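User: Continuing from earlier, I have the next pair ready.

Assistant: Great, send them over.

User: Here they are, in order.

Assistant: Folding the first of the pair now:
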Amino acid sequence: MKRASGLAFFSLIIISAVIVVLMVAESSYPIRPTSTQPDTKPVSIQVPAQNLKDVNEIKYVKMVNETLGFEIYAKGLRRTTDGGKTWGSLTYPELTFGEFFNGLVIDFSSPKAGWIAVGSSDEPSTIVLHTDDGGDNWVITRLSNITGIISLDFIDDEHGWLLANTQGGAMGSFEVELYATTDGGNHWSEIMDAKADLQTPGSLPFAGHKSGMNFQDSQNGWSTGGIGSSDDLWLYETNDGGHTWKTQDIPYPPTIAKLYAYPYTSPPKFFSSNEGIFKATFHGEEDNSGKVAFYSTTDSGKSWTPSRPITVIGPFVSDFVSLEEGWVIDKNGIRSTIDGGKHWTKITPNVEFTGIEDLNLISSTVGFVTTFIPARDKSSQDIWKLYKTKDGGHSWLEISLIP
């Protein structure tokens, strides 16, 4: 991880733990290996698009960069290498993600090295795909007893971390587990439990919906989220690669009262070893509205400074390409900043985004927007659309998702 209105929207946005990013590295702490022995045999899965007759509807669309992107289906995936002008087929019969996804994350550490993790509600398992050639070939890892995916991140070709949610949970809380790999995702080991009845020392709390994790380096990282009934800003930090966590105190924006604000934080995005940014969403004063502030750091996350909050209407998305340049898109259109959120400029696009799902900024002028409209009934299909801009958000071109 979206689609709601009013108070329900900002409560549900807390309930949906979205997939974001985490980094960790090896340490001297003991780790428990999973019981799963993954299939690590590289498999070439390139199939001509015209032979793909039995693929179900699209389940997810993601552009990795300006040219590379993927469509995920219940059976397999397809890839574009030219920015969506053409889509080839990447699938094979034995790879079945399942009809009901329980979290899906795509993470590329470079244009060649990438991973796709898909949790399944059909059965208690997760599939992790790894490519080191931009998607021509994939290594398949199947993990049992991991049902839901929140976050996935690799700091290089070998070292990565996966944050999974388990079946346990309660109102305002759910259980999570953190896994690590040192061989590119072929084998995973559990390094942290945050369950109601089983918690490793110094783990994340059971309370709170976790939106994800992000690490600046092999040792220092943050976990974000929120508790629907709390006005506390939910930010936890680790300094030992994710084994132990502690709260990090950050200030409220001066213009937001700490009363019924119900903040919800999202994982930081770092642009250098020192500079990073994350967003915090607060409940609004009016129906279907909220406030969002962007917290920036210039000292590697030791301290965070909030921007001036702005009002957002309904579901919204945001992304930054640097500490200064970023966009916010909501029902009222696009706003851009070039000074880290101190000031915003309104942009009126040539299209209206219905069911906005994701924003991926490539540069200050180039970006992608993904929209999603769920099926009305069993006889209809979900509708995904992908748009691209090359002029800073003023004009958008819809990219065909049909081969």
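And the other member of the pair:
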Amino acid sequence: MHSLPQEPDMMEDHLRIPNKKKRKKSNKKKNGKWVGDKVGREIEDFACYATKIHDFSRMAHQAKDSRKRAQIKAPIIFIVVFFGAFFSMVSMAQLDHWLKSKVFARFIPSRFRLPSHDTVRRALQKWDLDIQRQQHQEIVICYKEQKGPKKGSIDGLRVTAIDGVELFHSTAYKCKDCLTREKRDGSTEYYHSIVVAQQVGGGANIIYDWEMRKPRDGQDKDEGESTVALRLIKSLKEKYGKITDVYTLDALYAKAPIIEAALAAGSHVVIRMKDKRMRIMQRGHKEFSERSYDHFWEENDRRGNSIYVQAWEQEGLTDWDQVSIPLRLIKIIRHTTKTIIEGNEKVQVTDITEQWLVTTYTKTEVKVQTIARIACERWEIENVAFRNLKTFNHIDHCFVHHPVAIEALINFQVMAFNLKRMYFYHHLSNFRSWDIQLREVINEMREAARWGKLNLCRWLWKWGLCVL
């Protein structure tokens, strides 16, 4: 059993978060390149932040897999795969290229050799998922203790969105956890899908938890998204207590068990409604058509377009028999005025959209303008979580088609996504004013790790902890 050499600067007492006020000079750009301290400093600052705030070095040493007589141990694999996800690796082939080009050389003590991508594959298939899930839970608990959910609230309400996303599909490869569907040509397609719970409304917008859809839950069909969402709401309450005040959900989740589960967890719901056959919707259509709107206001979207909003509402509705409390039905019509190009000329047009919402909040608890904002912020799970995870973290690519490896890689990608956003959007409160895209910063951090003269081991491997 080996341990790292004893160095004074690797002691825990010497781990310090760099002064954020001194970072202003590094936020300037010249001809597309950073000047001053450059972004290379950020990868060292991130390693310091991850270890000091989230005890990242302990997480690395906790990592386990069930390989026998492994020459390269799980902590080395943990560091490589985490920073591979942090740097947005596209495939295992790219990870192999980064390993050969020494991208991770400064993350691992020089006395230990880097793994090959085949070793990483084998380790991920034997990974200990229970420890990994516990590490994710500790990160979210730390975020809650730092009042991250409250800083990203909407009018004082902590909002969580739940939605599902398909990861990848194949007609040739399958595993025991694959979901199945029949294509038009009669062939069978295998795919994986998850349901995600994410903070929305502002702040870091991290992912609180996620669950895989399971195959064949009965009656020869795969598990539905609403079943997974129900399980997710219950697990959030068990793991984190009351981390959210309200769930914002799509019409797919407009079901009584989900509403009752949210109420049992001490939260409320704002659900988009589409099914006009429901009695509560039929009553709303009848009542709202007979009177003028109850509220109106003007607002601007993120592109600066002017929006005129009309709203109808009715509370105390008991038409949903399976729900234990009266509900509040809201109808919102938005008139959005925007400029488009037609025939090389700018033309102003008005788009009209209609939206129906059901909420457990009463009129005295939350005003209709806040309910409308909460419903709109549901799109953040699409624009932030799913878009970033698919476009930049490539979660829709099957790196290793093995049930344990798939879940382990998703955990690594979610952990990297959360720590990345917590560092830049929660710890660095002024990052949005840097006027630079996050992916550009990440790319420069990767190149700094490869070419810069940085001592990252002292942050990631604290003195006295065994590596092998």
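Worth noting for the second one:
The first strand starts at residue 29 and ends at 30. Residues 8-131+401-460 form one domain.
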